[in-house]
Amino acid sequence: MENNQNSGKRPMLTGMFADRESTERAYDAFHERGYTKDDVNLVMSDETRKKHYSDEDDHSDLGTKAAESAGTGSAIGGTVGAIAGVIAAIGTSLVIPGLGLVIAGPIAAGLAGAGAGGITGGLIGALVGSGIPEDRAKVYESGVKNGHVVMGVHPKNDEDANYLAENWKTNRGQDIYR
Asked: Across residues 63-74, what is the average pLDDT?
């Protein structure tokens, strides 16, 4: 075997996004490649969620786009591009009060299964436990503390991994790893 995949599951592609627009464009790229909310991991601080991703009074272009597309049967429940809707729609999301984090997606399901004791190591422990190398987890922890959003997915193939990585770079993604 040329590649060193040991578990049959592809390594997680991860990236960090500093603002709502780049985060939502990155999320949209998942859907362009056929991924669903159940494939996407998302980590942000609870403060960031409250400040930038609660859509009650969202009058931004993206919020308007989301409202206009409601009812069109999109993959994330009619809220194309709205991360607030994504957080609500992703099957498992955890708000971890002691750490002030919102974690959504398969990572959250794994953490919920591990119980609160599984996250005593903080965000770094949670990320490392999901297969992200510790040095990368430290970069992401710092970013999340500074209001950034981390997203990740296990690409189905190299073509998807390349497409998503390039899309994220184009949309101001930072610290993109695969």
From this structure: 38
